[in-house]
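Q: Structure for this?
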Amino acid sequence: MLTLTVNGQLRDVDVPQDMPLLWVLRDHLNLVGTKYGCGIAQCGACTVHVGGRPVRSCQLNVGDVGTRPVVTIEGVGNTPHGAKLQQAWIEGAVPQCGYCQAGQIMSATALLDSNPKPDDSDIDAAMAGNLCRCGTYIRIRRAIKSAADKSA
Amino acid sequence: MKKIVGLGVAAIVVIALGFAGWLLLGRNPMAFAPGATVALQDYKGGNVSGAPAQLANADLVQRGAYLAHAADCQACHTAPGGAPYAGGFAFNMPFGTIYSTNITPDQQTGIGTYSDAQFLAAVHQGIRADGAQLYPAMPYTSYTYMTDADALAIKAYLFTLAPVHAPAKPNQLSWPYNQRRLLALWNVMFNPDARFRPNPSQSPQWNRGAYLAEAMGHCGECHTPRNPAYALDNHRKYAGALTAGWRAYNITSETDSGIGAWNDADLTLYLATGHANGHGGAAGPMGEATDDSLSYLVPDDVHALVTYLRSIPAQASDVPRTVTAPAPASHKQGVGAGADLRGEKMFAGACASCHDWTGVSPVTGYATLTGVRAVNDPSATNVAQTVIHGVNRKTAEGKFFMPAFGEGYSDDDIAAVANYVTARFGAKGAHLTGSDVAALRKQASQLPISHEAPHG
């Protein structure tokens, strides 16, 4: 039995140590906002925060999480940058199909947490690993800038 | 005039003999250790050959299985995706391709008809049952140090395998390398054809380690540079070499380019599992050596290997001191002007999510690049190979996976990202070109590309 801190709550899960965190979240904790995309850390759809860092949950064994707190798309709205970004996402009508957007918001939040005023190059460096097959990149960039302005 | 010619000829003969002597002196991998050796039966320091004490009551086949793993027969005698021990693994050499053969007990295509004497001739002398010479891709100049009893225990184990019908693939070698008979001459020079002789002035652990490293694990076949005749040059024992398109690193006790700065715990862990935090993980041929061989060794044997490795004289090589500090968190810092922007873009999209801009992975220590020798190697050989082939190892510690990018990215892309990674996380950036990467792909073409997405 493992105890995880997920979105501020202690959660006990009875799973093998080598199960990817993604499946623990989706199948055992019913937090299905985090999506499965490629399974090899190349698309970013499964991004969550672990210890404040953006991590591809398809590649992180749950046994390696340790005591680091986990935040998912269901909980990121309770953080200052997460809330601002979600608002900016709504105002900018960013998503098209929406499948990648949880991962996009998680990566964007981690970016603002470490760098509240990112320039275009910072946004590229932080977001390049999050693919969007609908091509909403321009709206994503605009929303990140809008949220960063509101953080001033 | 005649006198001058005579002196000239004499000088040439002296130089030739001196060179031959130098080559011969380079063939004994244990000659570096001070102290006289004794025949195995005269050694009083306990068992240095055979299976470990844990298997004292095991039967011949079980002991043979342990020894077959220790000698790592499987890695080379198995083709990617093929039946174990059925051969067909390609050795891409500068002068052509040699294929390993079937050592399952199949009567027609394997070694099912080999007598004990024939098996020993193959293992110790490189002579197969029909009398033809084996190519020294079969490491018989290392296995020659193996005791008869251990070789025959391995044979007993191999004969319990299911026979597989797998005819040998024809080698593709140019003249004169396709003349097997010439190897008789090569063997006179480079195969001592002598069994292991313990060295009583060294500890029993050292002797066990020497037996495991030289007679069984044949570490030198990858880690020792070769002389012009392609035999191991033990003047530069374990100083590192390029083998099958991958760089086998310096494992002498040299501090900067060798393993002198590794502590015993890390070295033991790396040998036993193929990974130690701060040193990265084994990939490519060392990944295979770990998974097929080293991970099967009992802890005492791993410790013996560490004892032996510690005694190898330091040799400097061209890999600079490993950078152990993480790179800056911002992509804008850490690499100087002239950084490969294409490489940076690729790193941002395909690599940073696991490896991080600092090189310290938030996912797993296996993915941390900080402190890893491959990223400190300015040739970037192993970085490029790892990008091409990915990593797909299943170890006792769990799965160890990196996607293979070889089929998705061009040679130029792979060169760019390898140059960027070595510049960002290592001491000195590489300058690979697309054609360098194309050559690396060819040299390592026998390695499978791992398609599997283990969590998919």
